[in-house]
Amino acid sequence: MMDKTLRNALPAREASERIKDFFEVSPGFSEQTALAEAARCLSCKNAPCMKGCPVGVHIPDFIAALRTEGAQAAAAVISADNNLPAVCGRVCPQENQCEKFCIRREKLGGSVSIGALERFVADHAPETEKRRPAPCGISVAVVGSGPAGLSCAADLAKAGAKVTVFEALHKAGGVLEYGIPEFRLPKAVVDKEIKALEALGVEIRCDEVVGRSVTLPELMETHDAVFIGSGAGLPLFLGIDGETLCGVLSANELLTRVNLMKAYREDAVTPVPRGKNVVVVGAGNVAMDAARTARRLGAEVTLVYRRSRAEMPARAEEIAHAEEEGIKFELLTNPVRIHGDEKGFVCGVTCVRMRLGEPGKDGRRRPIVVEGSEFDIPCDELVVALGTTPNPLIKSSYPDLPTTEKGTVIADENGRTPIPRLYAGGDAMTGAATVILAMGAGKRAAKAILEDCAPRA
Ligand code: FAD
Ligand code: SF4
After folding, report:
1. Quick one: 377 exposed, middle or buried, by C-beta within 10 A (0-12, 13-18, 19+)?
2. Which residues contact 342 (CB under 8 A, 6 or more apart)?
3. How far apart, in whole angstroms, are the C-alpha atoms of residue 211 and residue 188?
4. Which of 352, 350, 361 is nearest to 331 (CA)?
């Protein structure tokens, strides 16, 4: 008889409770649930789930280790391939990655909850002392301390390289620190994983803006190699009338004020707009995070998206949580004009209804305006979450840097740019993507750096 036990889903706090604070939505698996879920893994010989993991975590091995030896042994298996397991266990879109390929998905009670198990292991494994490897004689500068930079730095440090990370902000972590909200990814979790990397010997220098306080050529002169992992932090806007009104802001600005500067706290020195009726434009993870953050700051929130629910790019879990929390979705709707009051503050937005036409070049059905469908949504804050591109600062301070029209750095799949000893990866190279793809890029670049720069005997 085939085992058809049902998948254990992550528990979540009641929506009516969690919208009152910024604490984490899910408390994670209990030990009993984690072991029950681990017991569902069939230890498939060919491990199809691993096909879906961009950093190649040995999934059946870590789950077996959890079952038989406990969290510490499982953590040792995971950390051989993944330098930020507590982060990935929380924010990776597992439903499109490892869990999508799990053999149990269709007919055997649902995929094993691999992400929730990874999180359980990372949260429960006792900290072990990190041994610093013997120096290998290579020195590397890493620009940016997001998942790409940290992952690259960690693999280099594990191989004995001397690694210095240059980070523009006053805290390390990139989007993990300033973008993804506390209620999805507590900052204590990010800090703990970064401390573990520092224990490997990675030096992180905050408040260092490459292109201002130090230039790329200077870093290349003083290091054997430089990795650019500076992300894609420049927000895109709608380009419609009224976008410069007070109360219109990017999701990046809202989230940075709240996450990095802790503006949600009563004692915070950084202010944040606290609209009563907030419109968020967009439907990716960033839009969901902005909408759910505005909700926790006390607003009624309407999310406006020009396609239908099926095309919403955010994780299914984030969409479901947003709905539970009372976010209203206006789908097949596009803003065309933002209105202000006599003092210059936003007071509403005119939208049009859309319908979906034939698929365009990207394979997605094109939204088409429905004639005569204009209507107004009153609001006192409007948040734009339409995506981001790389910040042009590094390019402007070093015009030789090879970039595409969109401003992303040109490099091959192993992060090698056309300039010798200069590497890139993560959102800086691909445009806005995911944590695990950025980490995978950082790892491949670390491998390339070690191959290219190994001191000759
Ligand atoms: P980043 O994380 O952007 O890090 C780049 C770092 O470089 C930053 O710290 C920046 O300050 C620094 N930097 C930039 N310029 C310079 C300079 N000139 N000098 C020095 N330092 C510099 N992905 C998921 O997988 N799951 C999610 O749930 C998810 N949610 C998201 C929610 C939000 C709000 C956002 C914005 C993104 C989300 N993503 C999610 C996407 C994911 O976070 C990114 O794809 C990932 O962080 C990219 O990593 P990175 O290291 O390339 O860049
Ligand atoms: Fe376990 Fe699913 Fe991977 Fe098979 S595919 S090893 S059941 S997690």
Report:
1. middle
2. none
3. 30
4. 352
Query: How remote is the CA of residue 282 from the centroid of ligand 1, in Å?
Result: 18
Angle between helices 59-68 and 31-38 (to 10 degrees): 130
Structure tokens at 202: 């990675």
**What pLDDT score was predicted for residue 2?**
73
Round to whole Å and give the CA distance between 196 and 61.
22
**Residue 132 pLDDT:** 84
Q: In testing the pocket of ligand 2, which one of 103, 106, 111 has its CB within 8 Å of the most ligand atoms?
A: 103
Give the closest residue to 387 by CA, choosing from 337, 344, 430. Answer: 430
The model carries a pTM of 0.95
| Ligand 1 pocket mutation pick from 208, 285, 312, 388 by most atoms within 8 angstroms of CB | 285
Q: Which residues line ligand 2 (CB under 6 A)?
A: 41-44, 47-49, 59-60, 102-104, 112, 114
Mean pLDDT (10-residue bins), the chain, 457 residues? 86 97 97 97 97 96 98 96 96 95 96 98 88 91 98 96 98 97 97 93 97 96 98 96 97 97 92 96 97 98 96 93 98 98 97 95 91 98 97 94 96 98 98 96 98 79
Name the pairing type of β-strands 203-205 and 162-166. parallel
* Centre of ligand 1 from the C-alpha of residue 211, in Å: 18
- What pLDDT, on a 0 to 100 scale, did the predictor assign at position 456? 59
Structure tokens at 444: 């491949």
Q: Output the six-digit token pair for 23.
A: 């604490």
CA-to-CA distance for 238 and 245, rounded, in angstroms? Answer: 13
The DSSP secondary-structure symbol of 152 reads H
